[in-house]
Design brief:
This protein is an alpha+beta fold. It folds into two domains: 66 residues, 434 Repressor (Amino-terminal Domain), CATH 1.10.260.40; 103 residues, Jelly Rolls, CATH 2.60.120.10. The protein has five helices and ten strands. The strands form two sheets. A six-stranded antiparallel beta sheet has the order 1-2-3-10-5-8, with no helix packed on it. Helix 2 packs across helix 3 and helix 2 crosses helix 4. The radius of gyration is 22 Å and the shape is elongated. The chain starts with a helix and ends with a strand.
């Protein structure tokens, strides 16, 4: 038997995914091969779905089974700057600490970047379809394609193709940035 909080989560997830694609409850029921009453019960948190029903719904909605049953994190994730685990670059005073790995089904990673003046960090192209977003927090840096990097100051934002060569060249000691790498 499914507990109340799990039923509420499943009901909310089914409703969210159904409305995201613009279907009525009747349309979802038809595509999943279940009754409209079952969909309505599930969305209200009153149903007691079987594994087979949830698989039918997830297949019809085009989402992984886990999307309907995984409640996710119970609270916020906090990483203090001093606790970040840096991965350093070879040949330049640059490090990146992964703050949030891309969860299954999503396609983005978030890094805290620290850099010092000196040799710029020259990155080879990443996977096709990669876009990088950088928000400079402190300092000053040239960021972007090697032929057209842009000078950033605190609070400035830039996005550029990550599937082409790109650079990060700090001009100020203690330069810090947030880098979000996404794959489309």
């Amino acid at each position: 038997m499914v507990g109340d909080s799990v039923r509420q989560h499943i009901g909310g997830a089914v409703r969210r995914e159904r409305t995201r694609i613009g279907w009525s409850a009747a349309e979802l029921a038809r595509r999943a091969g279940i009754s409209k009453a079952s969909v309505s019960q599930l969305e209200s948190g009153a149903g007691n779905p079987s594994v087979e029903t949830l698989w039918s719904l997830s297949d019809a909605l085009g989402v992984p089974f886990s999307t309907l049953v995984d409640p996710g994190s119970a609270g916020p994730t906090l990483i203090r700057a001093a606790d970040a685990q840096p991965i350093t670059a070879v040949g330049s005073a640059y490090s990146a600490s992964l703050l949030s790995a891309c969860p299954t089904g999503a396609r983005r990673d978030i890094y805290l970047v620290t850099a010092e003046p000196g040799e710029p960090r020259c990155s080879a192209p990443h996977q096709d379809g990669t876009t990088e977003h950088v928000i400079l927090v402190t300092g000053s840096a040239d960021v972007g394609p090697p032929g057209d990097p842009q000078r950033l100051g605190p609070g400035d934002y830039i996005s550029y193709r990550g599937d082409s060569e790109h650079i990060f060249a700090a001009h100020t000691s203690g330069t810090v940035a947030i880098l979000i790498s996404e794959l489309r």
